[in-house]
């Protein structure tokens, strides 16, 4: 009898591949399973099933499947890599680091493995210096060589002409980046900047349609290669190209690595640290996100705005004036950040709060799509840490309209650490929730603390784990204070720099003008004050005029 897979099993396997390509994951799983029963290759098919579980965020099933595959073939690089990803999302960070290190060692020329190695280590073992080293190693190996053959630019060098600004993003849809970019695109001054958007994702929605109305030049580049996109941007003569994805899905960093524009900037989409590549000239940030001294942890030059970003809240976000605990409900704390940010360190601190207050319950909002997957991912960690499961509610991902009603069932939001929230923190504050955050200096850890300090809410920034616990317990004992905050929360945000849309956009355009003058002066990485003050801009303009006078 032949050991070769039957024609029927091969047909089922191919049907699974086709269904998966069309994102019909349930049909794909059904076909893969049927192909196994019909005699398909055990190793290849189980590997595809494990990868399918990863794509659908069924991390416990993915881990079990990849372990089974590794039992069949201990040298399977795909299974080793798959286990690294599954263990990471299951909170098994030490094992995730070991497996991703092994995968990267086995295939040193795999850019994905090298990048995920940096990502996993930077969250599992927060160390800014080590993080810079790992991302720089990725940049030196995979990105920097692409820029060596870059052709010079022959663009109009007039210092005060309208600048052509290009935004590259995979998130121009119902996504956090869109909430930051909408007010920017709506308030750009056409006399100062001519705006181009290069949308790298094929997924579009009502938010995409709205953003398109704000932009004079919108390009869907989801089907273009990195090289083709580089050619298009050069053809458009973009002066300043802005990356809004960083090391997240939909990024086109290899287009930037080829040097698509004279000035290249990263902003907003990735606060995890340096991108690690030489051809990204600047990182737009602010003093709260990156205090003095942070420069040593970046390959890019830090350029600090007055405020890193604007915030526009979701349209449907009702405000509940009374904390739920004053409406006969148990006091409820909530972790609303992505579950990949949850560390054992934070969970153990929250456990101390629950132990001190047996009447309190904790809602953990995770990124899995179904309640079953959410529980399967997080519950083993909670059991291992001996947390009170009877007082923990696990919620899967929900639509934004539903998410923005969490203030009706939650009294206090708990920020994760050492990886903090960003957009989620702003959404929580808009709901009227206090957000308890840990103080930090590294950007990936300091985001929530910086937001709170900027709003004058530094009382909710804890200096230590003991302080974190004490501050939460004090808030639980003072529901009137929670009520008072809900009454003033939105006005506080509306009057802040976060929602001064026109002012923030003028700062941004002033920054772009400074970066353009830096380029004209031959200083692609300006060494002066990195904040767009008018006097700095005037000094640059004067320096440029003086140089031009000397060359006449």
UniProtKB/TrEMBL annotation:
Task: Please state the pathway this protein functions in, per its UniProt record.
Answer: Protein modification; protein glycosylation
EC assignment: 2.4.1.255
Highest taxon of source: Bacteria
Location of the O-GlcNAc transferase C-terminal domain: 153-303, 337-506
> Gene3D superfamilies in the record, alphabetically?
3.40.50.11380, Glycogen Phosphorylase B, Tetratricopeptide repeat domain
- A Pfam family (short name) is TPR_19
PROSITE patterns membership: TPR
Q: Which InterPro entries match?
A: Glycosyltr_41/O-GlcNAc_trsf (IPR051939), OGT/SEC/SPY_C (IPR029489), TPR-like_helical_dom_sf (IPR011990), TPR_rpt (IPR019734)
Please list the residue ranges covered by the TPR repeats. 43-76, 77-110
Listed A to Z, the keywords are: Glycosyltransferase, Repeat, TPR repeat, Transferase
To which protein family does this belong? Belongs to the glycosyltransferase 41 family. O-GlcNAc transferase subfamily.
Q: What is this protein called?
A: protein O-GlcNAc transferase
Native source organism of the sequence: Methylobacillus methanolivorans
